[in-house]
Amino acid sequence: SSQELSSVAFSPDGAMVAWGGRDMRAHIADGRTGEHRRRLEGWDRPVTCLAFRPDGKRLAGGSTRGLVILFDPGDGREVSRMSVPNSDREIRSLAWSPDSALLAVLSQDNSLRVYEGDGKERFCRPVRGNAPRQVRFTADGREIAVAGSEAIEFWGAAEGASSRILEVEAPAWRLAIHPAGSLLAWGGGKG
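Given the sequence above, the corresponding structure tokens read:
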């Protein structure tokens, strides 16, 4: 596609690839051949992030106006939508829990929201710093890590209690957690 992209994601089995950007749509193509399969619509602002659920049955997409839409990637049907209340701030990052039960949503209003699979909000917590950028679940699904300008914060996935804070010397814009859960890697403002 010749559009400006802001997100791309493969389905867990690699059978689909999704991308989204300034055209206010997400697109799904065959992950092996690249053949375009469907266009997903419903946002009124650019798509900022996409995340396939680990079971591959849902694709979440966030926008610059605080809207998250869940789709069935198989048929393109919209399943539900969630809006960050009282906000038109960008959705920065999305992450599904390893068991596909929870969706973590990080928005530019410095909030972490966790939704159940049906779109019901479980909790909302403020995050530190002025520019949270990425959210990830730990490999066991018990904690949620949020990377930001001052720290990497960990929250209990079940109840939203702050569990630990890792201070960083430079902004942590990107975050990766090893599948075994024993290592954490981040990068950001100073490399």
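The mean pLDDT is 91. Try to locate this feature in the token string yourself.
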